[in-house]
Q: What sequence folds into this?
């Protein structure tokens, strides 16, 4: 999916909103919802925590932060009906089985015919004109204490979420994950402290999720992006030149980049 210069400028502006400094977790979530809205239009959306009491319990969605064009009464009705009646019918909860953060469109895992037969859609979403849906699930067992979920909707007057919308959500996701991890472990947001303890940042998370790169491959990729030669990379990472070449070959294959120059441009 091709993103042009204007798309990237808007994405960069949205990322500034995501990383805005504040220690209030609800403000962080509100900023993230506003950041998403600035690059992916939606009519109604919420950012909630996922609570599971134990392995046998069904995941429940709690403490929503809402961004919406609808009046407050709409939000309260949505929250009450979801919590009291329809939450256990929510077929999008499949994502709670994922061990890694994931971005999704509802239309990618349930077709219209099947969806139209569900009570969750016909009794809960459709009467509210929440026709098109996409979102993301944020989880990282090492760095995030409580998983969370973002769901955004468009009404019947809007088009369905596109491939481009999904690609943008995938770009934002590792930055959202990183910001939520800072709420769990505040020191990770300070310069130098995170690198010393884990060596993982939002760019690493994106490369892991988007291209399935390993920690070592990411380290090599970053060296490549710095313009270092294979010999220099081998020296910096204390590995052999042949190992460097093997890692670069794997990175090019996974990212589907035809050359080292193209890889540097991607990075």
A:
């Amino acid at each position: 999916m091709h993103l042009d210069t204007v798309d990237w400028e808007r994405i960069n502006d949205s990322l500034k909103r995501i990383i805005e400094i504040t220690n209030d977790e609800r403000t962080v979530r509100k900023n993230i919802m506003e950041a998403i809205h600035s690059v992916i239009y939606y009519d109604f959306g919420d950012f909630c925590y996922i609570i599971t009491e134990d392995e046998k319990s069904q995941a429940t969605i709690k403490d929503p932060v809402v961004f919406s064009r609808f009046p407050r009464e709409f939000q309260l009705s949505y929250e009450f009906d979801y919590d009291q009646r329809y939450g256990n019918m929510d077929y999008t909860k499949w994502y709670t089985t994922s061990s890694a953060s994931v971005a999704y469109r509802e239309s990618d895992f349930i077709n219209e015919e099947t969806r139209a037969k569900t009570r969750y859609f016909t009794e809960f979403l459709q009467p509210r004109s929440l026709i098109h849906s996409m979102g993301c699930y944020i989880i990282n067992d090492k760095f995030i204490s409580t998983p969370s979920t973002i769901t955004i909707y468009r009404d019947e007057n809007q088009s369905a979420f596109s491939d481009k919308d999904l690609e943008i959500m995938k770009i934002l996701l590792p930055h959202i994950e990183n910001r939520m991890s800072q709420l769990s472990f505040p020191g990770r947001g300070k310069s130098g402290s995170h690198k010393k303890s884990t060596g993982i940042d939002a760019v690493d998370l994106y490369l892991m999720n988007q291209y399935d790169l390993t920690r070592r491959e990411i380290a090599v990729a970053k060296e490549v992006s710095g313009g270092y030669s294979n010999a220099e990379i081998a020296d910096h990472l204390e590995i052999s030149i042949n190992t460097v070449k093997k890692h670069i070959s794997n990175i090019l294959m996974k990212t589907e980049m035809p050359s080292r120059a193209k890889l540097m441009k991607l990075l």
